[in-house]
Amino acid sequence: MESIPGTFIIKVDYQPVSVVKDGNEDKTHACLGPDPAVFTLVDGHLESGDWILGRSLVEDRSLLPKRVLWFNKQSTRTDMVHKVLAFPDGDSYRLEFLGAPLISHEGKLFADLMKDQPQDVQIIIQ
Predict the structure, then answer these.
(1) Which InterPro entries match (predicted)?
(2) Is the pLDDT of residue 24 over 80?
(3) What is the pTM of this model?
């Protein structure tokens, strides 16, 4: 699915994905924090305010976890951000960032290509 009805927050290891802290850049590495971002998923894009959360179309070719970034909607073409898919999972959803689950490392978000670092990810419908 490329859409989830309504708004929701995302928690990774019980900590919410935080709103963008520094709005002066076109893209910034997404972090966990006390001020949760409220998302919509429409046409495969995770949006929160003026920002899109996702993986860049341009990444290194290694199998290391890939950075999950905030992209400013005003200065970024949506075709430069990989789509996010949602799959029903019980009474919630499971998100995949180009086939990779979301993980955190030292408070920053990544997509785990190898799927060898499973973490609890919660989608909390508002």
Answers:
(1) Inhibitor_I66 (IPR031755)
(2) no
(3) 0.94
